[in-house]
Amino acid sequence: MLSKGTYEEIEGFKSTNVGELQTGHDLKKRYEENKVLEEIIKKIEKRYLKIEQEYKKVFGGKFFEETYQQLSSSKEVINMDWQEKYLDKLDQNITEMKQSLRDTENRIAQMINQTLSEIRDRDNQRHQEFLHINQKVDYFTNSVDKKIDEIRKEIKEDRKWIIGIAVTTILGVAAMVITVLLK
């Protein structure tokens, strides 16, 4: 109850979110209003106690006991009313914060998915480029292989000609040597 608390204790309930709550002045005002209500209730209780005593003397009645219980419960309702409103407001703020966090989480997940999608697209592009380069390398390798085979064939043919020329040269030199010797 507020009668047991102080303004400083209640001040601890202030929220730092400007859009959602009361200022320290609002809390102090409510605290003061609550103190005034408590004083009024105490005065009413005293009056009822006096009246109840008089009534008990006259009627011995239970009427005032029931009325006193109703009065006590209304005092608790008054004290709890602003606290319930405050707790409802806190609950609403917590719910809003949870929703905000969920929305933020969804946005982050969406950004991650979008980034992963872009990375996959770039990876696919690089893969296509790699395949294209690989095809070009295969084409050039095949054309180089064909040219090497052609060069080998030409070398074989040239070797035959060189051997033919060498044999002919040797035979010509031998024929000249034989001719010089026979003469």
Quick overview:
The protein is mostly helical and 183 residues long. The protein has helices at residues 7-11, 24-58, 63-182.
Give a description of the structure.
The structure is a single chain. This protein has helices at residues 7-11, 24-58, 63-182. With 183 residues, it is mainly alpha-helical. It has a domain at 7-132. Residues 1-21 have low confidence and may be disordered.
N-to-C order of helices and strands: HHH
Large-scale geometry: rod-shaped
pLDDT averaged over residues: 77
Low-confidence residue ranges: 1-21
Number of helices: 3
The level of helicity is: over 70%
**Backbone CA Rg:** 54 Å
Largest sheet: none
Tell me the total number of β-strands.
0
Q: Structural class of the helices, strands and pairings? A: mainly alpha
